[in-house]
Structure formats: C-alpha cells, structure tokens
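name: query_chain
kind: protein
chains: 1
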Amino acid sequence: MTALPSSFDVTLALDIVLLVMLLVVAGAVARTRSLLAAIIMFSVYSLISAVWLVVMDAPDVAFTEAVVGAGVSTIILLGAILLTRGEAERPDWRRLIAPALACIAVGGLLVFAAIGLPGLGDAASPANAYVGRAYLEATPKDIGMPNVVTAVLSSYRSFDTLGETTVIFAAGVGVALMLGFGPRASLAPPSAVIGDHHVVPRVAAKLLIPLVALFAFYVQFHGDLGAGGGFQAGVIMAAAIILHALVFGLRETMAAIPPRVARSLASLGVLLYAGIGVICMMNGGGFLDYDYLFPPSVEQQIPGWLLGDSEHAHHWGQHFGIMLIELGVLLTVSATMVTIFYGFGGRTVEAARQEAKQ
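structure:
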C-alpha cells in the first residue's frame, strides 16, 4: 500500500470536493424550471455550505447556515410555492447574455481578489495580528467569557447586533403587511375531533418537538461557552413551532400561539434588547455598556465567586447583559419566522377554501 505524498493536504482536498459540489448544485438550480426541485437543491446547497464552514473552523456561521438555509427557509419557500405556479417560465436565451457576462466579470474579479488573501490561520495576517488579537487578549479581562465570538457580537459590537435584530423585525412586519393581518393570517379555532389517520407522525412529533425546543434553550444559554446564541436558538425554536403546524395543522398551532401573540413577541424582543441599553444609561454608563447594568451599590454586594472569578465582579453585569439581549434576539427571530409562516400558511388555506367553493 503506497503512502500519500507528504504534501497531500486532506483539508485542501476536502475543500476542493465541497467546492465542486457547490458548483454542480448551483448549475443544477440554474438549469431547472421546477420551483420545487430548485428549493430542494437550495437546501442541499446550504447543507454543503454548512459543512464547508465547519471545515473552515467557523462553527457559529455553519450552525446558522444549516438551521436557517437548510431548515426554516426551505419550509417557508415550500409553503410559498403553493401560492404560485409549479414551474418557472423559460426565458429567451438572448436576454441571459448580459447577466451572464456580468456574473463572469464579477466572478473573475472575486477570484483575482481572493488570490491576494492571506492563508487560513496565518498569524501574520491583519485579522489575526491586529483586531483579532486585540479581542482575544481583551475578552477575558473585559467580558470574562470563553466564547470570544459571542463576546464580540453581543458586547463589543452590540450596536450592530441590535441593528440586525431590528432589521429582522422590520422584515417580518413588511411580510405581514403584504400578506395581511386579517383572515389570511388568523384562521378559525380547530375542531374538537382530531382524525387518527396520522397517528405515527403525531406521536413522533410529540416526542421530537419538546426535544427541539429544549435544544433551542441549550443553544441559547450555551452561547457564551461555544457555538450558539440567540439567532440560532430563535430559528430552532421557530422550527419546532413550524413542525407542530405541519403535523397537527395550522389551526392547531394558531390556537396555541395566536398570530397577535407572535407579533407581540417579535416587538418585545427588540424592546428588551434596547431596554437593557437604557437601563445601563440610567445607571451612569453608556448605551449597552453592561458593566453598568446593575447600580454600583448592587454590584458591590454581588460576590465574584458566583461566576468563578473573584477578581472581576463586574463580569456579573456582562454575563447578565449578554444573556438578556440574546433572549431578546431569540424572541424576535423565532416570532418573526413564525409570523412569516403564518402569513403564507393562512393564504394557502384561504386559497384552498375559495377553490373548493368554486
């Protein structure tokens, strides 16, 4: 058995294989006219991208890509195509010349720019030598959190994360305004009699949905130690609710979590996030400066050993501040996803009713 050459890099070979798979799937998406096939292949594309991100040592981003791209987005798109035609119209090939040339030009520029990028993990690269190293050195002292990614997103760059949360909320409001707040998003309560022709999916869902919800809370509260956080946990929680709607019916889910409650939770998450910043300002600090989350008199009474760090008691405010704003992110993300699903699902049921009447 011949040994592999010393220069053989398994990671590089895996990167090439994944890149080829992405190109093949992207080409298949561009060629297919079936919307259902395109959505399924988009889900496969997201899964391959998630694997690639794990290989690139970016588990947080891979987590989000797998849950959002391959999970909830696929479900919402599958619900959306029920309101449209099953296949896309075949356009005139002459109209595709200009977009194709533009894509080739932009792709060539990106490839040319990527040649000058530093190598993965290069300690002398700007990201690792300047800003990245500063965060790695300052996080244990300033935040006291093992996961530097969460510390950067939720504390150092908390303004940006608040903006991202607000954008998600605004997107949900925009979709709800387009789909309607009336009967399209609010169905009648479910009937008392439930059929028994879906016994196996119902029993399996009753076992899986609590586990999915529990995993969402694990991801939420584990974000300061490893991959996770409010964005990922919110999407997982939304997936549990959407799974309930797919198995038990949209009326059942809307009766348990009415659309107005979902919309209220989405706004409550943004208010909770911003409210933490206001509390910090009231205690003499800056907006979202968690070191001032508790008044100094209360801060002095908190023993540092509760967080395992007797020398830096101010980490108590950092931990609680990050935990609360991540909870706000979870509420906004999950409620927005559910609101969008309710909008599409309500329109689908209404269209079916009108078709049945005709």
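note: Residues 185-195 have pLDDT under 50 and may be disordered.
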